[in-house]
Amino acid sequence: MLSPETRPWTMAQIAAEAGVSATTVSHALSGKRPVNPETVARIQRIVQEHGFVPNSSGVRLRSGRTGVIGLAVPDIAHWYFGRIAKGVEEIANERDYGLVICGTMNADPRREKRYFNMLRTRAIDGLVYTTSRSMSDLDELVTVAQGSSIVFADEAVDRLPEVPSVTTTVREGARLVGEHLRELGHSRAVVIAGYAGLRSTTERVAAFREYFPTALTLFGDFEQQSGYELMGDLLANDVAFSCVFAHNDFMAIGAIRRLREAGIRVPEDVSVVGFDDVDVATIMSPALTTVRKDMVEIGRRSARTLFDVIEGEPGSARSSVLPVELVVRGTTAPRRD
Amino acid sequence: MLSPETRPWTMAQIAAEAGVSATTVSHALSGKRPVNPETVARIQRIVQEHGFVPNSSGVRLRSGRTGVIGLAVPDIAHWYFGRIAKGVEEIANERDYGLVICGTMNADPRREKRYFNMLRTRAIDGLVYTTSRSMSDLDELVTVAQGSSIVFADEAVDRLPEVPSVTTTVREGARLVGEHLRELGHSRAVVIAGYAGLRSTTERVAAFREYFPTALTLFGDFEQQSGYELMGDLLANDVAFSCVFAHNDFMAIGAIRRLREAGIRVPEDVSVVGFDDVDVATIMSPALTTVRKDMVEIGRRSARTLFDVIEGEPGSARSSVLPVELVVRGTTAPRRD
DNA sequence: CTGTTAGCGCTTTCAG
DNA sequence: CTGAAAGCGCTAACAG
Description:
By secondary structure, the first copy, chain A, is α/β, with parallel strands linked by helices. Chain A contains 13 helices and 12 strands. Chains A, B: One of its GO terms (molecular function) is transcription cis-regulatory region binding.
């Protein structure tokens, strides 16, 4: 770019310069076999001088490994997946792996094909896969999963039970919410749920029903707007309720906005609980009662599990389920008639 | 992983199976030279059957290109850098490039070394570099920048004027803020600025001074907490002001929180303006008056510029400066005595 | 239309 | 302690 043609030095050139063979340079740098200290010193000097670093394509072809893992997320700009990415990146970096991010744009098939191919072409050694909705091309994933290193983060895929996953106790989270609202004296609840196709949605709906068996359940898309609109529908239809369980904080925030516009106070008239514990939950006023999921930890754990798959004893990679925690803040209050 | 040893097929094996040479397989797949249609068909079939895809390490070693670009960001989980990443990813994907994300953890030297090395080892073809503070190891960057493809996103580096950058008209943004507050009748302002070492900070401070020449300026770190604390200092010292210009929305939000705790109303008693226009700015109430920067577009433009550097005519890559826009919402109001 | 050869840059036998 | 040679998987020149 700046200098027109700065072809980097090759090991052979360094070797020539040092008056030794490439083999010796290789070993001097890796320490994988004894080399005369003087020779090492000389090589080091020349390496320093030219800023030589072994070309990674050569190393990769030779070793059959890339030193890179992939992370597939629907949208990297999303708070939720950003946190996961942070955790994955942290561990990858620790292990001296690179991380390539594949945005799936909410399951755009062309995009998905692309990172499946990265696995197939051995451009990456493994993949952490996340999704916020049901897969567009599950069949292809099933094929690719054979003989590849994959870990599902946050959401497992039912059809692939053998693939390790890192999930959370969402069922327990929903129970905590139900219990909390019951203790506050509420008896009529509505649920603004996540995607209908996700296991985590089904589980939460079922668990919440243990406390509110007849709770009306509407399915949204995890975006604020959908919480807003679904709440609008509820109000337009005169549904009677004194509390809302939203399957994530963004939808909860949207629902609260809609309630306020209708002159309904939160938490005085209606209690609202979210899920995930986004940053905003503490900023808003009143602060949002929610269920905390440690997204960064999900990322970390997923990456570690992936490395178990890649480097560990066969079968050493185990699925794990991380705990969640109810955080009671200001959007829930005792029922008032 | 699942199947114990599924070594992928090599081109040579496919060739043997098809009764042709590897060369022919290569050309049949790439179309770079005519191949007998029947032969092509046969090869296609075998390729399909075994799910063959050319090993990328081989291709890379041969071609000298990796088909991957890097993105260095302080923290991928941060709203700001997530947006940039989204834009970069979008364009990379469009060009069939992979994107590796390098978290610099706010300029951790070990981390920075790591992705500089990726450039050096030719593990990536180019790098989009962002920073939120002054560089930890500018000298190393200067060295690496020689003969490598780099683009600075969002913040240019003064010592490297030849490196293309994509920035915004922050100066103009600060002027708009000054003008707006003047028009509302304010005469005493304080500034909660960004890192002192950044050009964008200096520029904004200077531009705002055109309207409020004596505005007290405190430097923060772009985090909410710092806006909160700096506002605390201002209050503790009885500084007289009726409006605040914060260099980003998070600090603005922190400052507002602190003002409220002190019983000072926004915007009735004090007007507050942020910068960037984060999602939360619209959610909070009153909604935040701020200056909108299109972060995703910065990402896109940076990636395009990087591809100009990598693939374009030498010298075809140009720095660009994107516009910003004042968004007047609810946290600013006419001065009241 | 097709094959042979060579070589990208590296590491690892095997042989001194 | 060191080197020569082979080969990872692919493709471009050079022959047919």
